[in-house]
Amino acid sequence: MMPQHGEDNSSVHPESSLEAHDLPMFPLGSVLLPGMGLPLHIFEPRYRVMMYDLQQLDSQEFGVVLIERGSEVGGGETRGHVGCRAVIVQAVEQADGSWAAVAVGTERIQVLEWLDDDPYPRASVAAWPDEELKLPFDASKLDLAEQIARRVAALAVEMGAQGSLADCELSADPSSRLYELATMAPLGALDRRHILTTPDLTTRTQLLIEMLQDQELMLQGRLSFGD
């Protein structure tokens, strides 16, 4: 029986303009962004089979989408229709047959059709490039996002979080830089999905600024009350 999957209300390209291909899929309770690292402990039999199949390919790629309802384990979950292509950069099979792997997100994808889950989730997908900007991109907005992100990171460290943006060198490419900031920011899965599904760089940058400003106010409030 084919699984039921939830609707994603994000804007998508008309299917007629997309070049579709089949891809193994890994629904997760978190959102993967382009450039973001993804450590995986793979123990379910269906995903062990997927890992074995991927090891036979030159391009060890799969797709990641957010589980909107349900669990990562056992199947039957409700899946989103927008996600990220990932490539495995390291994989080691353990003595018990499970896998320890690391993947990296590469590009946005949209799911055109979910295929049979036997032996593991698969879908017909297409790359989802950003829409062309009508006006030149304002790089100062991205500079502002980085400034707020660094302040948010410093506040989070004050509250005991690990890591810091202080010594991080970000990409010179604006799109990659934005995704790096969104990866490092303390955003939840739904916020990251909103970042991923935003249609263009200008809109995505403004959205990230607003999210970071909210985070900054929240952390300042918690610190002022000694939380």
Quaternary structure annotation: single chain
Question: What is the helical fraction, as a range of percent?
Answer: 25-40%
Give the structural class.
alpha+beta
Which stretches of 5+ consecutive residues score pLDDT under 50?
1-11
Question: What's the overall geometry?
Answer: globular
Question: What is the H-and-E element order?
Answer: EEHEEEEHHHH
The major beta sheet can be summarized as:
5 strands, mixed, barrel
CATH topology of the largest domain: Archaeosine Trna-guanine Transglycosylase, Chain: A, domain 4
Task: List strands and helices in order, with pairings.
Blueprint lengths: L20 E8 L8 E6 L2 H11 L5 E9 L8 E16 L5 E16 L7 E6 L11 H20 L15 H11 L4 H9 L3 H24 L3
Parallel strand pairs: 1-3
Antiparallel strand pairs: 1-6, 2-5, 3-4, 4-5, 5-6
Description:
The protein is α+β, with helices and mostly antiparallel strands and 227 residues long. It folds into two domains: 15-127, LON domain-like (Archaeosine Trna-guanine Transglycosylase, Chain: A, domain 4, Roll); 139-224, Methane Monooxygenase Hydroxylase, Chain G, domain 1 (Up-down Bundle), CATH 1.20.58. 33% of the residues lie in helices and 27% in strands. It has helices spanning 45-55, 139-158, 174-184, 189-197, 201-224; strands spanning 21-28, 37-42, 61-69, 78-93, 99-114, 122-127. It has a five-stranded mixed barrel. α2 (139-158) runs parallel beside α3, α2 (139-158) runs parallel beside α5 (201-224) and α3 packs parallel to α5. The longest helix has 24 residues, at 201-224. The chain is globular, with a radius of gyration of 19 Å. Pfam families: LON_substr_bdg. Residues 23-216 form the Lon N-terminal domain. InterPro entries: Lon_prtase_N (IPR003111), Lon_prtase_N_sf (IPR046336), PUA-like_sf (IPR015947).
